[in-house]
Amino acid sequence: TGGVTTIDPGYKNTGSCESAITFLNGEEGILRYRGYAIEDLADKADFLEVAYLLIFGELPSKEQLDKFHSDIKAQSHVDEDVKKILDGFPKSAHPMGVLSSLTSALVAFNPSSVNVDSEEDMYNAIVRLMAKFPVLTAWAYRKRVGLPLDYGDDNLGYVDNFVKMMFKKPSGEYTPNKVIVDALDKLLILHADHEQNCSTSTVRMVGSSHAGLFVSISAGIAALWGPLHGGANQAVIEMLEAIKEDGGDTHKFMQKAKDKQDPFRLMGFGHRVYKNFDPRAKIIKKSADDVLDALGVEDPVLDIAKGLEKEALEDNYFVDRKLYPNVDFYSGIIYRAMGIPVEMFTPMFALGRLPGWIAQWREMRLRKEPIGRPRQVYIGENHREFKSLDKR
Ligand code: SDX
């Protein structure tokens, strides 16, 4: 065979590494970051604290958290020439493509982020990316809606500063909306890491060649974009809108999914690991009710989502396949209530997942993991004699 004798498509039964960062139990719907339950972290911690926990392994003391935040703030500028690259994109460019490109482009302005072998070099590259990625994310949005590319305010918290960069009007004061900041902080925590999912495995694979942190993350952003992965949060809202436009008949759509008619997937349902409720979906569903109430937003697609969930949980096709709502099913409803456009939903996922990707990349490098290079089962032609052009 010239390779191996068996393969494992999608690595459904393959462990790629040892990791001490995130623990999942798919049967029981358990998710822990460095041993702490996601329910506790979502309720009691803030996003930057959880980012520190994931990356460095411990909940930070106040001094450690303040230093981490001030090191990040010291790097929260992006070279003005990056705006010229952003200018080159059409307004219609999908923000995930823009973010993957700009994250890669950052290398040119931060060459020290490439050959990071010492822990100190890694730390410097990490705080640079934690600082600049929110700026790029906000700029990708502002470019789409024709607003000036601006900075927030280093006196604000990490998430509050991001919200200001996103929504601050060119004229007039920015009044922080605590409901939005708190809800986004919780959503980012819930998205922060998820062991060896598709995009994290991509970050590890690219990072294993020692290509550098920024391009490894850029590759992770590309992988997350797919509708089977992080792109599902955008696809869920598009699906719910389609059902609403079609008169709100969830049963008809369920039937299409069961008959595997295109687009047969019930977006936001199913998971490779969770064969029970995704614990994040439970928290987000509750948060959706709270946030929409607090913002005084009525969104008919929330009722459609709940109707779809109820019907699926009582339908053998979904129950037999253990298809439950996942992290992407309700998150878009909250983003929308916040005024975040649907094309920015997956960038929000990326903003949340950034510390997890960084933590996994750092662990892979500190453990000196070998370069990723799987084998194959060859199914092509046997040896053939070459034929010159005039004989073909
Ligand atoms: C994320 O891995 C992670 O941890 C990811 C993530 C993270 O935090 O990083 O949790 C984030 O990506 C969540 C998942 C977002 N994706 C979606 O919501 C897209 C819809 N979901 C599916 O595409 C699917 O469920 C996956 C991709 C999530 C998982 O796919 P698997 O494990 O490869 O399962 P499969 O495609 O082999 O399906 C098994 C069966 C099939 O039916 P049969 O062939 O056995 O008859 O279940 C069916 C599938 O057709 N099925 C679905 C379905 N998902 C699976 N049928 C209808 N709707 C769905 N959503």
TrEMBL record:
PROSITE patterns assigned: CITRATE_SYNTHASE
SUPFAM superfamilies attached to this UniProt entry: Citrate synthase
UniProt organism field: Marinirhabdus gelatinilytica
Family membership: Belongs to the citrate synthase family.
Catalytic residues as annotated in Swiss-Prot or TrEMBL: 271, 328
Catalytic activity line of the entry: oxaloacetate + acetyl-CoA + H2O = citrate + CoA + H(+)
Gene3D superfamilies linked to this entry: 2.20.28.60, Citrate Synthase, domain 1, Cytochrome P450-Terp, domain 2
Keyword list, A-Z: Transferase, Tricarboxylic acid cycle
Pathway(s): Carbohydrate metabolism; tricarboxylic acid cycle; isocitrate from oxaloacetate: step 1/2
One biological process term in Gene Ontology: tricarboxylic acid cycle
Keyword check for Transferase: yes
Entry GO terms, CC: cytoplasm
Protein's recorded name: Citrate synthase
GO molecular function: citrate synthase activity
